[in-house]
Amino acid sequence: MFNSIQIKFNETKTVNTVLYIVSKLKRKDFHKIFKILYFSDREHLNKYGRTITGDKYIAMSDGPVPSNLYDIFKAVRGDGFYKDDGRFGQYFSVVDWDLIIPNKLPELSELSKTDIEIVDDTLSRYGNLSWDEVKEKSHDYAWKATSLNREIDFADIIREAGGNDDYIEYVKEQTILANL
User: Fold this and answer.
1) Rounded to an integer, what distance in angstroms lies between the CA atom of residue 117 and that of residue 104?
2) To which H or E segment does residue 59 belong?
3) Exposure winner among 12, 20, 64, 134, fewest CB in 10 A?
4) Chain-wide mean pLDDT for the chain?
5) Would you give the end-to-end CA distance of the chain in angstroms?
6) Which tens digits make up the pLDDT trace of 89-146?
7) From CA 95, how far away is CA 39, in angstroms rounded?
8) Alpha-carbon distances, residue 85 vs 72, 76, 81, 121 (angstroms)
9) Dihedrals φ, ψ of 100, to 5°?
């Protein structure tokens, strides 16, 4: 199974991608941010062979949710399993249960040109969609192929974006080499 290969979560890149996204979104709630990240990671994985964040996605009732980022948001909000020691609160705050308020500007040097290119494209395609519209779009093949509250297989995410089995094997090999 493809998910047996652990793509490494990049905390710094994820935080800066979130800051970049919220600097451009009107509605800055968990749901919209999670979906913009999912679509961005999906497209980047299919186009460049790696995700932007390295986060794993869980198939939840309202669509894919980046697991590590959700834990970070809950910690900042004060109700997560982990408590925020100020490490993440310096970057953003959570108000009204699920709205992200940035406390810093993104460090764009932490993002590659392709990261920014894909996030910008994703924002232009999905950024103005309603909650229901973005939820519907995220209930894609990869989400439907996964049991609720389970990790979505990266192979299914690649297939959703148009990749074939040869490309999946290529990404798998590149991920193994990157993790050596």
Assistant:
1) 21
2) strand 57-60
3) 12
4) 93
5) 19
6) 999 999 999 999 999 999 999 999 999 999 999 999 999 999 999 999 999 999 999 9
7) 24
8) 11, 9, 13, 34
9) -95, 125
What's the pLDDT tens digit per position in 156-177? Answer: 999 999 999 999 999 988 888 7
Burial environment of residue 51 by CB neighbours within 10 A (0 to 12, 13 to 18, 19 or more): buried
Task: Give the tokens for residue 74.
Answer: 């809950």
Cα(121)–Cα(84) distance, rounded to whole angstroms? 32
What's the half-sphere exposure (Cβ side, CA atoms, 13 Å) at 91? 24
Residues 21 and 116: their CA atoms lie apart, in Å, by 10
Show the tokens assigned to 93: 């705050």
User: C-alpha angle 13/16/20, rounded to 5°?
Assistant: 130
- 54 DSSP 8-state letter: -
